[in-house]
Every structure is written in structure tokens, then in C-alpha cells.
Amino acid sequence: MNGASREALAAARERLDALTDSTSVDAGSLADELAAVTALLHREVSLRRVLTDPAQAGEAKADLVRRLLGSQVGGPTADLVSGMARSRWSQSRDLVDALEELAAVADLTAAQRAGALDDVEDELFRFGRIVSSNTELRAALTSRSATVAAKSELLHSLLRGKAAAATERLVTRLVTAPGDVAWSRDSSPCPSSPPSAGTARWPSSPPRCR
Hints:
210 residues; mainly alpha; 10 helices; globular
């Protein structure tokens, strides 16, 4: 992300910080709604292009966002995304990446409010180490043939009761994101035997993908 997109993201981060500074805004709900908008714009390429078209007036794009999202998300989310639509973006994909980042920031803010930020950071680091060192688990989480539901179920079985709710949400969004994920994808089918999760705080025998 560079040029205009960097500036647009910085402005969006400032607006997000202003929103989450208010205790009346539920940062967790904001994160969920931003993630939902991210998925929508990833699917609807034509809409994404309209919202990032420099030839279109910023206010017209903001109005379009409010019409589309007004009844689907809360006011803070609609205001934030409308502001992002007013900004200039170097590439249409940058808007999706920015929304994805803001959703993660909002989730971490929710964890901080709950006094769980240190735990979440530690859990994310250790889960990343588990995935990096376990080829079967990595294959299950990055397989193109595995459904979102199967991956979500696998992650839920690994993290349920063992990690903070924010950790599970962040990891699930990363693994099930429609775009590229942090770990290399594996196009092979789900492994026929359950992958081993290692010896950290998660079970050593998660269920197989199906």
C-alpha cells in the first residue's frame, strides 16, 4: 500500500481511534461489522471499484455506502466506511486491505478494554508458531478444498476454552479470509488423519477437516 492509500489508511485509523476512545462504542461489534464489510467488498468487485473510483465524487460514494449499509451495520461502522469511501485509494484492493486491518485493530482494542490484550498477543504469537511448525495443521488451515465452515470448526475446537475470544476471532478471520492469508496455501485436500497441534495450550488432536 503506498501513496494515496497510505494517507487514506492513516486517516481511517485516526477516525477509528476517535470512535473507540468512546466507551459507548462496542469495539468488538465494530470489528465484526468491519470484517463483514471486508467480505462484502471482496465479493463485490464492481462495488469496490465504484467506491475507489477517483472520477466519482467522494460525497456520492459516501452516500452510496450509507444507503447500502445503513440498515445492516451500526452508525459508527457506517460513518467509518463512508469516510473511507470519500478518500482516494491507489488501488481498489487497498480499501479491502485497510478494512481488514481496521477490523483487527478494533478487536485488539476490545481485548485491551477487557484487560486481555497481553494474553491475546501471546496467544497469537504461540498459535502462529504452532502452525509454522506443524505441516498437517497448516495444510488443513490453508487447503483450498476445505470449506470456511470446516476451517472455523477446526479452529474453534483448537481454541475453545484455551484462548481469549478475541484471539479466536482474529485467527478465524485470518484463516477464512477470502483473500491471501499469512501462511502459504496448500491446494491439496484436507489430510485424511487429524493434524497434531503440538504441545502448547491447544489440544494435540484437533478434528479432521470435512
